[in-house]
Amino acid sequence: MIATNDIVLHIDHVHKTFAGLHALADVNLDIREGETHAIIGPNGAGKSTLLNVCVGVLPPTQGKVMFHGTELTGLKPYEINQLGVARVFQTPEIFGDLTVLENVMMAMLSHRDGAFRLKLVSRFDEQGEIGQRAIQALRERGLGEHLYHLGGALSRGDKRRLEMVIGLVQKPKLLLLDEPTAGMARADTNATIEILRQIKDSGMTIVIIEHDMHVVFSLADRITVLAGGRVIAQGVPDEIKGNPKVIEAYLGEEQV
After folding, report:
1. What residues have CB less than 8 Å from 65, skipping those under 6 apart?
2. pLDDT tens for residues 163-216?
3. Where exactly are the structural domains of the chain?
4. Alpha helix (H) ranges present in the chain?
5. Which residues pair with 37 in a beta bridge?
6. Where does the signal sequence lie (predicted)?
7. Phi and psi at residue 189, in whole multiples of 5°?
8. Second CATH level (architecture) for the domain 1-84+173-256
9. For residue 60, which of 31, 86, 29 has the smallest C-alpha distance?
């Protein structure tokens, strides 16, 4: 449910070229406050490139990205994160040699201080404020039994859930998810959908890139379809399902 019509993220005529190849070509997109917005399209459509431009990993060749009226173009990824944009990557990025609890405590320290050092983590008392908040966040997302397990020993589904917790404890205003169910078994996918529903119901603004149309149509308020680096359709799920261009470019292969 969309809370307001305020624009959280404004992508304005964004182009991105690599050695003359247009990965993104004149992409325009507005993300509204409180909505879950899915970006779909075939492989090579430019979806991950667009997210990389939004979080400062890649600079746009042309155009700009605005977040709550502040231009993100030219900012470093950590500066964008400090503004309230969190991203969960396609491949889980966690500290495999730290415990699940330590991973979350690290994220909380980074958000609070803007910097962290690995050697400091062991000095944090889990009975203190940071530790207790981290434990609560992990228990709420079904990871309470893994508090003292090494991050690298988790299943793929639990690693994804851990990374979502890491993103959420930073209290973002916008959560960007790059294929959060990639490679998951159906049971893990369904568990992840439930977690995302809880996040959605909290009112957080979410952008999700996803190939699994079951996930997309279970969660999305609106959908943008990319093909060949261009936007070919935007609308609510029922509009996208019935769009001939989308069926030809993508959904016909997905058997939705």
Report:
1. 9, 10, 11, 12, 14, 53, 54, 71, 72, 73
2. 888 888 888 999 999 988 888 888 888 888 988 998 899 899 999 999 889 999
3. 1-84+173-256, 101-171
4. 47-54, 77-83, 100-113, 118-121, 129-140, 156-168, 186-201, 213-219, 237-241, 244-246, 252-254
5. 207, 222
6. none
7. -60, -45
8. 3-Layer(aba) Sandwich (3.40)
9. 29
Question: What pTM did the predictor assign?
Answer: 0.84
**∠ CA 224-229-232, rounded to 5°:** 40
Nearest Cα to 30, choosing from 69, 59, 57? 69
| Burial (CB count <10 Å: 0-12, 13-18, 19+), residue 77 | middle
Q: Please state, for a pLDDT cut of 90, what percent of the chain lies above it.
A: 50
Q: What is the pLDDT of residues 5-29, one digit of tens each?
A: 589 999 999 999 998 889 999 999 9
